[in-house]
Amino acid sequence: MQRLWAPWREGYITKVIRNQHKGCIFCRILKQNNDVKNYVVLRSDFTYVVLNIYPYTNGHCLILPKRHVADINKLTDNELKDMMQVLIKTKDLLQKALAPHGFNIGINLGRIAGAGIPKHIHFHMVPRWKGDHNFMPVVSETKVISQSLKAIYLLLTDENKKRSRRVRR
User: Fold this and answer.
1) Each residue of 15-29: pLDDT tens digit?
2) Among 62, 64, 112, 155, which is most buried by a count of CB atoms within 10 Å?
């Protein structure tokens, strides 16, 4: 496997390792109430959405319950309903802001299933475009992300503000 030099990732990896003993990163994000710093796109009664800082594609979002829970069976009816409504709203925001051709939406339950943070359940919403699997992953096992998290965050939060204004009218 070839390697792509990415020293900017070292700071994040070091931070994750250093903070592992400090509890759930998703719960910390929620408590910090600093949406810009943490790329929190939107919040509802029981759910919030953040940009994945290790995205598969531009706009890769995580939809999470506010309550720390590891399994889908542990969610209340209100949490389940709210998460699905927020998932749909997130899809609509991504569609309007980024115009993808499709989406992958999924949940990894347990570390063996691919959950990087298995104790706080979350949906992955990954926008997809025709041709977004180019030669880079095949030839060099490298993904190319064309926009910064900050640029994507601004697009999504601006679209969310526009939608909120239209709803209030």
Assistant:
1) 555 555 578 999 999
2) 64
